[in-house]
Amino acid sequence: MSEQSSYLTKNGFIHLREELNYLLKVDRPRVVKDVSWAASNGDRSENGDYIYGKKRLRQIDSRVKYLLTVIEDSKIIDPLEQENKDKVFFGATVEYENLDKNQMNKIQIVGVPEVDPKENKISWLSPISKAILGKQVGEIVSYESPSGQKEIEIMSIIYK
Questions:
Q1: SS3 content of the chain, % helix, strand, coil (to 5)
Q2: CA distance 75 to 113
Q3: What is the C-alpha separation between 155 and 139, in angstroms, rounded?
Q4: Long-range contact list for 16-23, CB < 8 A, 24+ apart?
């Protein structure tokens, strides 16, 4: 994978497409209606509903433009179609032990637009992802994290 390319998991693509559809079919029309109503109330310079509505429309339009670009320019990868499931590739869910802290962690390697730290979804461009791509269960990997050198052991690789 070249760093100039953009990648999405199949689920990530579906979620982004759902967000785009919601913005275009629900959120934007509702805000346009609110702005039209606010504009009909007269002086727009001190009309908070109008000013906020226009700002919200710009935010929605900006997000729509971003989503359209990401969806159009990304290669969609279904982790379930990975043929070599004994190695870490894009879309893999990897359980590993942080050998410095004797602590188990689980991450999924995803595209940049899908990153969600709360769900342990990390970019394929992150230091840990780059270090474990192509590795197998049982391998011990060292990598440079923002907080210093880390050593981990890959415990399991799952494609779902």
A1: 45, 30, 30
A2: 12
A3: 8
A4: 16/67, 16/70, 16/71, 16/113, 16/114, 17/71, 19/63, 19/67, 20/64, 20/67, 20/68, 20/71, 23/60, 23/63, 23/64, 23/67
Condensed to tens digits (0 to 9), the pLDDT of residues 82-123 reads: 999 999 999 999 999 999 888 999 999 999 999 999 999 999
Sign of CA pseudo-dihedral 123, 125, 127, 128: positive
Do 136 and 87 form a contact (C-beta atoms < 8 A)? yes
Euclidean distance between CA atoms 117 and 39, whole angstroms: 40
pTM for the full predicted model: 0.82
Buried b (16+ CB within 10 A) or exposed e, 1-30: eeeeebbbbebbbeebeeebeebeeebbee
- 106 touches 93 (CB < 8 A): yes
SS3 state of residue 155: strand
